[in-house]
Amino acid sequence: MNESFRDRPSAEGGLQAPTRHPLPWRSAEFWDRDALEAELYRVFDICHGCRRCVSLCHAFPTLFDLVDASPTMELDAVAKSDYAKVVEQCYLCDLCYQTKCPYVPPHEWNVDFPHLMLRAKAQAFRRGEVSAQHRRLTDTTRIGRLASIPVVAETVNAINRSPTMRKAVRAIMGVHPDARVPEYHHPTARRRLRKQAVDVHAQPAGPTRGRVALFVTCYGNHNMPQVVEDLVAVFRHNGISVRLLEREQCCGMPKLELGDLDCIERYAQTNLPVLAQAVREGWDITAPIPSCVLMFRQEIPLLFPESSDAQAVRAAIFDPFEYLMHRHKAGLLNTEFKQPLGKVAYHAPCHQRVQNIGPKTRELLSLIPGTQIEGIERCSGHDGTYGVRDATYERAMKIARPVVSRIRQVQADHISSDCPMAGEHLAHGVDRARHAVHPISLLRRAYGI
Description:
- This is Fe-S oxidoreductase.
- This protein has about 450 residues and is α/β, with parallel strands linked by helices.
- Among the domains are: about 20-125, no CATH class; about 335-445, Rossmann fold, CATH 3.40.50.
- About 50% of the residues lie in helices and about 5% in strands.
- The chain has a 4-stranded parallel sheet, sandwiched between helices.
- Helix 2 (about 60-70) packs antiparallel against helix 3 and helix 15 runs antiparallel to helix 16.
């Protein structure tokens, strides 16, 4: 029997703040399959002895079920070929690292479960073990550009509304026919906003400079251009200068989920010089999608720790509501709200929570008279492609069930989440005909602008 890592003497848990090590993905050991299996065994054994994260995603129940069903009820009797079943269920939400695990660095056991899963996904991707359907589904830039051509957008949206045609999409893209998928729009957000003048007035406040270069994102550009317009309107209403970046590529989060690190590098080579130049010219950065902010705030700096551009962008990128609350603290937020919002069931998405910025969206919306915020901090189960793929849709809906139940209990006027995909996934679970409203759109409505 292999020695259990848990049998070695060590302090129980840790009281120091978590720290993240750069991901050594260019090293030979990172890609060594035997070294990966040894590290999976080490970390899985620690997780088996702790089980604190069982209530998060399905990766941990999968692991513990494998152990409990083995002859010895220990990890040594679990086939290494079954490790992939655990990896498949991790969608890199990062909550285990940031909120649950007592053994993250600087603890000597050095457990980084999400980045270990990323390493396993990266190896599987290089071995060609990722389906063509999943590869297509994560190519958000190409899909968005094609689907946002006017006649194509109308056709794609019509196909997505047709139960019969959705079965064909299932075969091509691996999307479950019952999953809610986004609509595509023309003109895109970048086209709608490209001719707007930039207000050069800027008043610094706290860490903000009052000038924001907007990373529109694939989803914002093609699937929710109105929300991007709402964000620009709200920022300008608060005296913040806004401009679009000259060009942008996907942030890379869909490819991170896939384990395609080479593609992320190509995207970063396009994005980082443009973003860093904006920072050097005195602009802060924001994006309407929490996952994209997280990508530039955490994952890209850890993948490219030697990049001064990555570090500059990391220091200058903000969540939109984080930015506005910095302005509020300095007395610069416009609080002349004209419309109450009633009761809002507000879901805090995982990729925003793990940024450790606090509940800024809930705090700001709570300033609006006649508005009651019912906050929900639990995973929606969507997380990019996990919530729509044929292989994982049913499980994603099961993970979402407690949040959906809470929303029904609240009987809210609005369902809202900073992650539009999570919001729509939850609204879909509540009522097939209901839709979510992005918090920035609710804020614009409250301003009456």
